[in-house]
Amino acid sequence: xxxxxxxxxHVMLCIPEGKEEDARHFYGQVLGLPELRDQGYALPNxxxxxxxxxxxxxxxxxxxxxxxxxHPAFEVKNLDAARQLLEENGIAIRxxxxxxxxxRFSFRDPFGNRIELIEMLVPTKQDLI
Length: 129
What we know:
This protein is of the alpha/beta class. It has a single domain (5-128), classed as 2,3-Dihydroxybiphenyl 1,2-Dioxygenase, domain 1 (Roll), CATH 3.10.180.10. It contains 3 helices and 6 strands, in the order E-H-E-E-E-H-E-E-H. A 6-stranded mixed beta sheet has the order 2-3-1-4-6-5, with helices on one face. A hairpin with a 5-residue loop joins strand 5 and strand 6. The longest helix has 11 residues, at 20-30. The two termini are 29 Å apart.
């Protein structure tokens, strides 16, 4: 069994609490990234999402923590099989906050890096091309 990776879906960066408008200005105005405001659902944990080419950039305020929530998120074809494989190898799975158009979970690699795996429940923009 192996995980069937599709593509990089998004990268999440963290900012200090209270700096959301500064981040919105930098990423939206300075870098010129379109903000994805209307997804048809509320974004989890006060996040803001921007379109960056064919991936998304997610920004979220985070207090200083020993283990950051910064992470890459990879789309896979077989999320349930990926979960099984990781659990069979003793990797702890974290069920992340729900998002209506995707199934997802995250885990930490042996070095403490957070990695998110996603299986889209509706066609992505890439699928429609």
